[in-house]
Specification:
The protein is of the alpha/beta class. It has 2 domains: 89 residues; 215 residues, Vaccinia Virus protein VP39 (Rossmann fold, 3-Layer(aba) Sandwich), CATH 3.40.50. 42% of the residues lie in helices and 16% in strands. The chain has 13 helices and 9 strands. The strands form 2 sheets. Strands 5-4-3-6-7-9-8 form a 7-stranded mixed beta sheet, with helices on both faces. A hairpin with a 5-residue loop joins strand 1 and strand 2. The longest helix has 17 residues. The radius of gyration is 21 Å and the shape is elongated. The chain binds S-adenosylmethionine (SAM). S-adenosylmethionine binds next to helix 7.
Length: 334
């Protein structure tokens, strides 16, 4: 029963789309566990209700009402008896309620991010959702990159919502972490997400106020974290920090037009004393990665494959907006 409850909570707080086969697998597990015994189902239903009620996330980072409604109908399909509260209440949420633009997603490591709900390239940026490259970089950091990151001053290019960096600050003992991006909305959400994960838990009303007015943030930023605007296509080398040991990036190689700027900023940071850059690239269109590697070599940088990863559906359950593809982490040095 414990693993069913845990998986259910993960899908619920992670806003996992109900169309995903992972929910069908979970339904099969529940049917097998209950084996037509309605009392067993009632006991499970109670545990599910308790788990989601007890988690801090449910109070501080509300799950969208539409998702709750869909989950209640999914659960009802598994039982011949009417559901009890809170699931029975959720079934009453009106069907025509509009999906929110942004949702809180809880990741396996306990990180909560405010993310765009609908369009992976909404608001003219890819940076308002998290990508599988960030998970690959995290997996590498935890498995192999500990020595590379521990006590180091790290700078990330194209941080997006901060999934990798927040994890690195929480789990990898970095000395400092500079999140960077170029998009106003992404930077605003990045600040909010860093705050959400490191400041005192906020009440829902405070979060709503922050969303309406980003300047309303009052929490002190975490000491190790810095958030900075950095546009690869428009930067002055003198403005780049010269106190960086390691550069990281994930899923930033996706448009040929951005490659020259990205390579130039990596070269400049290595020139200013960083020992290496680690860039996780998801193979969507091989040409863009080939252009990136060729450009790095043409400006005299060395490139080696550091790590390869392909995730299963269960492992990337929280980043479910694109098919799973192989990811390669490149180590780039002078
Ligand atoms: C596909 S997202 C990846 C976000 C994050 N690294 C992840 O893996 O979840 C690409 C990121 O690069 C940023 N980006 C795109 N062009 C950029 C530029 N010229 N300078 C800096 N950041 C840029 C976008 O704003 C976005 O956050």
């Amino acid at each position: 029963m414990d693993s069913i409850v845990e998986t259910f909570a993960e899908f619920y707080f992670g806003h996992l789309n109900l169309a995903f086969s992972a929910w069908r697998n979970l339904a099969d597990d529940i049917r097998q566990f209950c084996a037509d015994d309605e009392d067993a189902f009632s006991a499970l239903e109670e545990e599910l209700g308790k788990e989601i009620g007890e988690r801090n996330s449910s109070k501080n980072f509300p799950v969208s009402r539409i998702h709750k409604r869909k989950v209640a109908f999914w659960l009802q399909d598994l039982s011949v008896r009417p559901l009890k509260r809170p699931f029975s209440d959720w079934r009453l949420i009106p069907e025509d309620e509009v999906e929110p633009d942004y949702i809180f997603k809880t990741y396996g490591s306990g990180i909560v991010l405010l993310e765009e709900n609908r369009d992976p390239i909404g608001q003219g940026t890819t940076g308002l959702i998290s990508w599988q490259g960030a998970l690959a970089l995290t997996a590498w950091a935890e498995a192999l990159g500990t020595d590379v990151l521990k006590d180091r001053r790290v700078l990330e290019l194209g941080s997006g919502l901060g999934l990798f960096g927040i994890n690195a600050v929480k789990c990898c003992s970095v000395k400092s972490f500079v999140f960077t991006d170029c998009h106003d909305k992404v930077l605003e959400f990045l600040r909010l997400n860093v705050d959400l994960n490191f400041a005192e838990p906020k009440r829902k009303s405070e979060l709503c106020e922050i969303l309406r007015n980003p300047n309303a943030q009052s929490a002190k930023p975490k000491e190790e974290c810095r958030i900075q605007r950095l546009d690869w296509t428009d930067f002055n080398e003198e403005d780049l920090p010269s106190d960086i040991d390691v550069v990281v990036a994930s899923d930033v190689v996706y448009a040929v037009a951005l490659v020259p700027g990205l390579c130039a900023v990596i070269a400049a940071l290595l020139g200013k004393g960083a020992t290496a850059a680690f860039v996780a690239c998801t193979k969507r269109n091989g040409d863009t990665i080939d252009t990136f590697l060729a450009k790095l070599k043409s400006i005299g940088l060395n490139v080696n494959v550091e790590y390869r990863r392909k995730f299963s559906v269960e492992e990337t359950i929280m980043t479910n907006h694109e098919p799973l593809r192989p990811i390669t982490l490149y180590k780039i040095t002078n």
